[in-house]
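Still learning folds. Look over my entry:

…
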Amino acid sequence: MSSTSFDPVVGQNQYLQLFASQLQHQDPLEPSKQEDFLAQLAQFSSVESLQNMNTQFAGLSSKMDSLIEVSRGNSSLSALQTLNAGAGLLGKSVRYGADSADVGVVDQIKPDNGSILVRIGDQFVPIANIVSVEENSATSLF
C-alpha cells in the first residue's frame, strides 16, 4: 500500500477545475444560486488564506528557533542584553539591598566579570540586587 501526501497547490488547482466544470455543466434551467456560488468561493479563499498563514507561521517558527539557538550559545549577546537592561536604569530611582530598604538614583553602569554593576551614590551595586524601579521625578531633561 503506498502513501500519498497532500500537495496544497495541486489541491487548489483540482478545486478550481472542479468548480469551473460545475459551472459549465450546470442545468441552464436551474442554475446554481448566487449565494451557493459565493459561499464556495469564500470557502476556497478561506482555505487558501489559512494555508498561507500556516506557511508563514512555519517560517517564523524556524527563524525563532534559530534566534533562540544563537542567543543560547552567544555569551556576548547575553552580555549586551544585560548591559542594555542596566542602561535602562540610568536616572531611575531604585530600591535595592538585602532588606530592600536602600533607595537611590542610578547614575552610572559598568560591566564586571559578566554581570552589570550600577552606581548609586558612592557605591556600586550588582543589577541583580535591584528589587524595584521608579521614575525619578527630580530628574528633568530641560
Residues 100 and 131 are 7 Å apart (CA to CA). The chain has a mean pLDDT of 76.
